[in-house]
Fold this sequence. Notes:
mainly alpha
Amino acid sequence: MKTREEKVEYTKEWRKNNPEKVKEQNKKKYEKDKLENPERLLRKKEKHKEWYQNNKDKHRNYQREWSKNKLSDIKYQIFDKLGHKCTRCGFDDKRALCIDHINGGGYKELKSGLSVFSYYEKVLSDVDNTYQILCHNCNWIKKHENNEVRKPE
């Protein structure tokens, strides 16, 4: 017989390894509650609102930290895919490396309204080799060489 701690650990591990099933189960439970017990959902919503009002700073800090970690994780996946150094000069300090559009058009893409997360996901899912890693110096040099520098309006 498993102890309570073992069951809890097993459940945590299962939920971690099966996020789609967990999402599906939660969705079914929500739909069932919506039909059978709508008052409960309203109470839950009110309780959440109240918690948020009392913990805005805590929530904001959590969101900020989560976003920072998520962006960092995705960026390292991009480095794993495209390389950990500048394609032109070999510079490898990640603080000064950036994602470059090989054929230009990066400014237009960034201004199209994509969030940073969506942009990084797009780079990760790219199969046409549209992107490369450049250091900021080489990126500016490339922009000047290809007349991609925007003029002030």
